[in-house]
Amino acid sequence: MKLKSQINHVIKEAFIKAGIEQEPMSVSEASKPEFGDFQFNGAMALSKKLSKKPRDIASQILENLDLTGILSKAEIAGPGFINLWLNPLWLGKQCHDALHDDRLGIGLRETPIKVVVDYSGPNMAKQMHVGHLRSTIIGDTLANLLAFLGDEVIRQNHIGDWGTQFGMLIAYLEEMHEDGNVSLKDLEQFYKDAKARFDADTNFSNKAREYVVKIQSGDKHCLQLWKKFIDISLGHCEEVYEKLDVKLTRNDVRAESFYNDDLSQVISSLREQGMLQQSNGAQCVFLDGDEVPVIVQKGDGGYLYATTDLAALHYRAQELGAKRISYVVDARQAEHFKQVFRVAKEAGFVGEDVLLEHVAFGTMMDKGGKPFKTRDGGTVKLIDLLDEAIVKAKETINNKEEYTEEKIDEIAKVIGIGAVKYADLSINRESNYIFNWDKMLSFEGNTSLYMQYGYARIQSIFRKHNAQIQGDIFICDLVEHRLATMLLRFEDVLNRAAADASPNQITTYLYELVTLFMRFYEQNPILKPGVDEKTKMSRLQLSALTAKTIKQGLDILGIKVVDKL
Fold first, then answer.
1. CATH of the domain at 11
2. Which of 31, 230, 300, 537 would be a feasible disulfide site paired with 471, CB 3.0-4.6 Å?
3. Rounded Cα distance, 468 and 517, in Å
4. Which residues of 104-135 are buried (b: 16+ CB within 10 A; e: fewer)?
5. Helix-strand-coil percent breakdown of the chain, rounded to 5?
6. Do 357 and 272 lie in a common domain?
7. Could you tell me if residue 264 is inside a domain?
8. pLDDT tens digits, residue range 398-453?
């Protein structure tokens, strides 16, 4: 339910009845319960336009406000604010309807669009490391969210598979007389050894560059070995994606090689439009206001990341028909994407109606505030981090004797992986954050375990009740009123998070919801003797709707729930 839009509609009708020919401002959530559920501040902004005092405008609106439906009460406060209270009967009915709807009353977009979400971007011939975590889970959450709201989401995993490193690997492979049958861990060491040879031996580096040309010209032998390297690398990525429970597949891979045939067309198009200038032998696009040009072709004829990104933008906008293209990439690439987006728009590769966005994110830090590393200063393998999360999660499981070892492993994976993902998603994505096991695996605070515990507590209520719930929902006191209002805000939160590409808005909402439910659970008895049947059924339904909302919110974040903790 788009709660705010419904209230805004009531305000707009009051404007029309009052003869105020202005578009009303949107309402906002009240800062305190005593100020109502929502607050309208538009009278202040209209004061100059209408040459009236804000309180006089507020009084005019109030006189024409419908208090027979969604609203039950409205009061003028301060210099001209209007505090608004939702109707308890209306709240109860809306919660009842949401509970019995598969989508919790959340509608699909009236005008869905195609959206490309570009995320993860692992390195080939190497294992995924912690630096790939944020792009992978933020991107997957954004894709989940937009798909849930009704957009047609196209997930894309842009990998670099077309550079000098592959000529280097093949050259070293032949030099060592290997047949290409290597595991990924061997391949990683193999890469380090090949790189050392490349840096130390001019003849070897020249040979490696020759192999790059052979790969790009379609040499059968070189392509066969190249494909083997890519296959080994992607196999490891799939293992990580399965453990992280993200939805990227091999079919979502769009590598640099996919756009290789289009790169010359990018250059030709830019040249035909008079956008290219030569600088130190390189072909560049100089943008107004930018001192540093966008280099699209080197003096030796080679292409750069910007060239491939321009080809990808053209493909995604023109071939796929995307109206929103989101790149979930490290904040350090901000200037690169700013320039590439400008070139793509000015060259007409992407229409003016297409939203191009760099969904930037900060760095994962250790407790000392430095980039997360191993004790010896090396890069932390992502698969090792996830395995450690599962091991640590086992320690949080109570009453292990109730479960089989297999069930304990299953629960530990849900808790451990959920903890890692939630800790990342719960902060503003553009911020750096401190990786802290104790904090992320705590039953208290804004953690996935706190959300999972809240869900499990509600399931324990229904195990005790073990009977059908029926009847209406009646809002009887302030805490029930606040819980019902919070539940109906869910759609607004999801739409705002989608517009801003900010998963932390969902986590903040879930934390507030679970905290409010815990207060409701403590203050409003449900199954205790003496609670009448009507009240019990109403509170059971509020609990059930809370559980469904928690589960749906976590599902969008790519986190599972458990029925018992």
1. 3.30.1360.70
2. 537
3. 21
4. bbbeeeeeebbbbbbbbbbbbbbbbbbbbbbb
5. 55, 10, 35
6. yes
7. yes
8. 778 888 999 999 999 999 999 999 999 999 999 998 888 888 888 889 999 999 99
Tokens of 133: 């975590």
Per the structure, the complete domain to which residue 221 belongs is given by 164-247
Q: Is residue 501 part of a domain?
A: no
pLDDT digits (tens, 9 = 90+) for 476-507: 999 999 999 999 999 999 999 999 999 999 99
Q: Give the CATH number of the domain where residue 288 resides.
A: 3.40.50.620
Q: According to the 3-state scheme, what is the secondary structure of 491-542? A: HHHHHHHHHHCCCHHHHHHHHHHHHHHHHHHHHCCCCCCCCCHHHHHHHHHH
Residues 260 and 359 in one domain: yes
Residues 6+ apart with CB under 8 A from 399: none
Q: How far apart are CA 499 and CA 501, in angstroms?
A: 6
User: What is the pTM assigned to this prediction?
Assistant: 0.94
353 CB-contact burial (10 Å; exposed 0-12 / middle 13-18 / buried 19+): exposed
Question: CA–CA separation, 403 vs 414, rounded Å?
Answer: 15
Q: How far apart are CA 285 and CA 270, in angstroms?
A: 8
Q: What's the chain's length in residues?
A: 565
Residues 257 and 352 in one domain: yes
Do residue 69 and residue 176 come from a single domain?
Answer: no
Window from 69-73, 166-170, 185-189, 543-547 with minimum mean pLDDT: 185-189
Let me know whether 148 and 267 are in one domain.
yes
How far is Cα 233 from Cα 132, in angstroms, rounded to an integer? 14
CA distance 446 to 378: 30
Separation of CA 441 from chain center:
21
The pLDDT, as a whole number, for residue 291 is 87
Q: Residues 263, 347: one domain?
A: yes
